[in-house]
Structure to design on (129 residues):
């Protein structure tokens, strides 16, 4: 394989979290990490827009958080391990977040993973609400 990095970028639905993505998503990820503190989770739940204004994210990032569009957040610099803090604030397990990101019901997602995972050529589905 001549370019290991490029090979991963060819997998449908794959976003490589590299230095560029890290720079793009810095404020989005800092927001997500702020939710590790209970006081911040409570502030966010009380008034999401006011809390989000504390972080100089792009309008696109703010909207992706409001929409809980995890695929979009990843595409615009989010790191799934940081974004999981948003899901946890909403009371979701990591398994639930993954099911939302694939557009599959949680139980179907669980069974797919038990059976060995997703075929890499399977398209990533829309985010369920």
């Amino acid at each position: 394989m001549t370019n290991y990095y490029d090979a991963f970028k060819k997998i449908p639905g794959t976003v490589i979290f590299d230095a560029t993505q890290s720079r793009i998503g810095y404020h989005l990820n800092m927001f997500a990490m702020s939710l590790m503190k209970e006081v911040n989770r409570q502030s966010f739940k009380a008034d999401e827009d006011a809390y989000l204004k504390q972080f100089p994210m792009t309008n696109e990032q703010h909207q992706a958080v409001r929409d809980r569009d995890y695929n979009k957040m990843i595409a615009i610099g989010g790191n799934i391990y940081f974004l999981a803090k948003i899901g946890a604030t909403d009371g979701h397990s990591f398994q639930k977040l993954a099911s939302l990101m694939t557009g599959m019901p949680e139980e179907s997602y669980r069974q797919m993973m038990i059976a060995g995972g997703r075929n890499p050529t399977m398209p990533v589905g829309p985010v369920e609400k």
Observations:
- Residues 103 and 125 are 4 Å apart (CA to CA).
